[in-house]
Design brief:
61 residues, mainly alpha, BUB1 N-terminal domain-containing protein, 0% strand
Amino acid sequence: METVSSRPVTARGVGSRTAALYLAWARHFEQKGMKDQADAVYLKALENQAQPADTLLHEYR
């Protein structure tokens, strides 16, 4: 029987190449006025080669 890990799914690589994950995460920070954190999320998305990349590049200001 498999056990559930206590690590977040992103730490296990789930969704790490999906642009939608990073967009939602960055928007969360942007709405709270946390621009530096949002920028870090966008950069992490690009580093992880999240797709579709054009969506990320369009949203990253």
